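PT: before anyone asks, these are the final sequences, not the draft ones from last week. 248 residues across everything. Please model them as a single complex and drop the result in this thread when it's through.
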Amino acid sequence: MLLKISFESPTPIYQQIRDQIILAMAKEALLPGENLPTVRQLAKDIGVNPMTINKAYNLLKDEGYLVIDRRQGARIQDAGLLKNEKTEYLIEALELILSEAKLKGVTKEELSKVILRIYGKRRD
Amino acid sequence: MLLKISFESPTPIYQQIRDQIILAMAKEALLPGENLPTVRQLAKDIGVNPMTINKAYNLLKDEGYLVIDRRQGARIQDAGLLKNEKTEYLIEALELILSEAKLKGVTKEELSKVILRIYGKRRD
DNA sequence: TGCTTGTATTATACTATATAATACAGACTA
DNA sequence: TAGTCTGTATTATATAGTATAATACAAGCA
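LR: through. Structure below.
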């Protein structure tokens, strides 16, 4: 698990952890069914309190990205079980980002590049 | 100025104000050169402290969206002066949102709809 | 001068974030 | 059964962000 945490950032540490796990899942650096480091191990690696990791894992669990098993620890959710969840809040967040991008002159072409980078070439 | 503020939201009020002004700018409900309500007026309308409005306006000023003039109050920045600003942080935020969208099964077609809604039909 | 503008100041209150040290419940394994 | 690994709960503490309140000030303008 390679996580780059900025302790100077205004973004809370547990949020940074949560975001980077989602990014890793999208780029398939973390695969469904795969185990994450234990709370204590990741806390040690990053140099933060175990409860901060616990908070990040629980956030991801509540959002449906992780399954937490007392025997094995945290595990990436199966792909099928993640789909068809509520996405309205994502659309709203997207509208805000796109509004800023439009106002700052980001072109449609640049947007397409980012979409291609995340989504790949599939045609749905 | 129609602003819908949620006092129960975990998003700070000044952030909500900032976000909605950007959304209004993107949909051209607020036009370059247009004046915003005064700090005191908007505070009265929404029912918050004037310093909360001040914080939102200053955030927008620092981001380049507003010009604050002691004579006339806050004014929407000219379109030309907003372009060519740094947009790396927007791309990063976009990557995160798109990662979540991908994992939750949002299709490319749905993304296109949102882009069309914000950007319109221009072809850049 | 008197009115408006944004801004600064000080104090207070509440909440979120993060840490620390400990302890506990459940499940595996030797 | 005892030991050891999971995640989790608890309590206390510290710091920072958010928001309010009341007041005051500087700048610009009629």
